[in-house]
Amino acid sequence: MAHRLLGDRLEHRISPPPEDSSGSERGDLSKLDLMAEPAQRQSPGTEAPPLDPTAVQRAYRFYRAQRHAKVEHRRETRIARARFWAFLGLLLLACLVVAVTVWGEVTKLFGL
Question: What is the DSSP letter of 46?
Fold first, then answer.
């Protein structure tokens, strides 16, 4: 079906050869007449693009801030990890105290 649609489009663009022409004159009509021309190349400008005089300093500050943020993140991660283990240790200690207290009350109550 796509070939049929494409063929319909081409029929409108191509004019039929003149009826009185012979086969040798038919070579004048070519498919190249229907093709698009290549785009014109634009010559590169002779001017250099404008440079930002503060670009180097801004890039330096940006990467320095990035390094600082990475170091700060590592430090905060280390502190958070220590805080987690300390809290877990205290929680286990509290559970142990409760378990010993409950065990003492159970032995006193039932005489074990």
Answer: S
